[in-house]
Amino acid sequence: MGVKVAVDPSGRVVNASLTSPGPSQYFANVALQSARKWTFTPPRMADQAVPSQWILKFAFARSGVEAQSQQVSP
After folding, report:
1. What is the distance between the alpha carbons of residues 13 and 8, in angstroms, rounded to a whole number?
2. 3: number of Cβ within 10 Å
3. Whole domain around residue 49: which residue ranges?
4. Cβ atoms within 10 A of the Cβ of 62, count?
5. Model pTM?
6. So what's the pLDDT on residue 21?
């Protein structure tokens, strides 16, 4: 299940949307709620923190949840 997040220059998530909802609306909502609580170390350009976008991938299993992040811009 994937969630795309927009992050402001302070590292806070300002927008989150599903990229691939998966088969369960329940887990899709859990992933969105979780993604909105993440914080990031913002990337820097010309010594200034800048907004960024990330893809978060969540995998739900009986043993727990795994999450991975990948910066997609800048």
Report:
1. 7
2. 26
3. 2-73
4. 4
5. 0.88
6. 77
Number of folded domains that form the chain:
1
pLDDT of 70 = 96
Closest to 50 measured CA to CA, from 13, 24, 11, 3: 11
Residues 16 and 35 sit within 8 Å (Cβ to Cβ): yes
pLDDT in tens, 30-67: 999 999 999 999 999 999 999 999 999 999 899 999 99
pLDDT, one tens digit per residue, over 5-32 is 999 999 999 999 999 877 889 999 999 9
* DSSP bridge partners of 53: 6, 73
Phi-psi sector, 73: left (phi>0), alpha (psi -120 to 50), beta: beta
CB-based burial, 15-48: b 16+ in 10 Å, e otherwise: ebeeeeeeeeeebbeebbeebeebebebbeeeee
